[in-house]
Amino acid sequence: MPAKAQGYSFIMRDGTVLPVHELARGIYLLMQHEPKLIFDRIWKLIEAEIPTDRQPQFQADFIEKMRLFSEAAALRVLITTKNNDKRYEPLLWEFEDYLFPSGPTDEGQKKLEALKSAMGDIQTLSISPELTWARDWFLQLGHDETNPATLVAFTQMFADGTRGLRKLLNEAIPR
């Protein structure tokens, strides 16, 4: 654990005290697990539209892109939370340690740029009609989804993860 975050902890609503690195790890693991959950739910709605020979690649691309967007959404929430309450800064530091290599690398720079781009795309969701945003998201994967019910379901699934993280942070009080 980096020295800058040592000694920080959070009290959860149930009274459990979590060191900051454990809370950050939990958030990171949730963001790693969420893409598969979303894929499994959305797949039921779109499977028939994806040609059989494209399905494995589509699944891999979807999960990879959703993982990036889940990490970017979590990063946005943590940055906003830290900006509103500096006591959450160590949690942001710890979460960033899961996202990036320990030192400057080309891989780390590419990841940073990808996260910035995803964060920008997420920001457009708040100002763009959700159907347009979701359709563009699928188009980037080579799938032209036009069913409004599927597009709305997708944006709601994505938003649920962000709401869940906000709820978790509201229940995690810095000590």
Describe, in plain words, how this protein is organized in 3D:
This protein is mainly alpha-helical and 175 residues long. It has 6 helices and 3 strands; from the N terminus they run ββααααααβ. It has helices spanning 20-46, 55-84, 89-99, 106-127, 130-139, 148-170; strands at residues 9-12, 17-19, 172-174. Strands 2-1-3 form a 3-stranded antiparallel beta sheet. A hairpin with a 4-residue loop joins β1 and β2. The relative contact order is 0.17.
Order of helices and strands: EEHHHHHHE
Describe the largest sheet: 3 strands, antiparallel
- Annotation field: number of helices: 6
Q: Output the radius of gyration.
A: 17 Å
Question: Kindly state the mean pLDDT as a whole number?
Answer: 93
Question: Topology of this structure?
Answer:
Blueprint lengths: L8 E4 L4 E3 H27 L8 H30 L4 H11 L6 H22 L2 H10 L8 H23 L1 E3 L1
Antiparallel strand pairs: 1-2, 1-3
Helix pairs in contact: 1-2, 1-3, 1-6, 2-3, 2-4, 2-6, 5-6
Features of this protein?
175 residues; mainly alpha; 3-stranded antiparallel sheet; 6 helices; 70% helix; globular
What's this entry about, in short?
With 175 residues, the chain is mainly alpha-helical. It contains six helices and three strands. Helix 5 (130-139) packs across helix 6.
